Amino acid sequence: MRYCPQCGHAVNMTTPPGDNRVRAVCPSCDFIDYDNPRVITGTIPLYKGKLLLCRRNIEPRLGFWTLPAGFMENQETTSEGALRETLEESGSVAICKQAFSMISIPHINQIHLFYIAELERDDFHATEESSEVALFDLKDIPWDELAFSSVTKTLTLFIEDHKNGTYGFHEDTIHLNNAYDLNQ
Q: pLDDT (tens digit, 9 = 90+) per residue, 136-162?
């Protein structure tokens, strides 16, 4: 940010009093821009034991498979956002069952939260955001064609929990040196 969204004055990059981070601060009106992480929320949609994946029809990672997920909007809960994204990306109506994974990706200022969800029926289709939508047996997940490391991590944890027959809540971090989320 170069100019204050309140008054239009050029901002200074400085640490405000009582803070511990450099922020854009307006010397004219004292506005402080708190640039905080974005929340991405989505589902692990299941139908009769199969997993629904969407092939991305948009950048980043055009053509790769992913779980339906996207940026949470203002004035919605994380589960509402996850269900909205599932509908937008797959045309499917789902029901959230439980929060499953929360993955921090600090180098891109994002937090990814995935819910286990059940599809009400096998009604899904390609959308503007997904060129293809398909159900996969868990043994047939296209691991080499997954779009994001947060999706790979979430599905790996899901498969482990599925084998154990219980599903917990998992928190993890993906660092730049082991991620392909650079443009997420």
A: 999 999 999 999 999 999 999 999 999
Give the angle subtended at the CA of 96 by the CAs of 93 and 102, to the nearest 5°: 125
Q: What are the CA-CA distances from residue 65 to residues 54, 85, 114 (Å)?
A: 5, 15, 16
For residue 176, what pLDDT is reported? 86
pLDDT band at residue 177 using 50, 70 and 90 as cut-offs: confident
Helices H / strands E in the chain, number of each? 2, 11
Q: Which domains does the chain have, with CATH numbers?
A: 1-35 (2.20.70.10), 38-178 (3.90.79.10)
Strand, coil or helix: 164: helix
Could you give the CA distance from residue 102 to residue 153 in angstroms, rounded to a whole number? 10
DSSP for 4-34, please give it: -TTT-PBPEEE--TT-SS-EEE-TTT--EE-
Secondary structure class of 8 (helix, strand, coil): coil
Question: Rounded to whole angstroms, how far apart are CA atoms 65 and 112?
Answer: 16
DSSP secondary structure, 98-128, as one string? EEEEEEEEGGGTEEEEEEEEEESSS-----S
- How confident is the model at residue 181, as a pLDDT? 46
Identify the CA nearest to 69 among candidates 26, 21, 111, 11.
Answer: 111
CB neighbours of residue 149 within 10 Å: 18
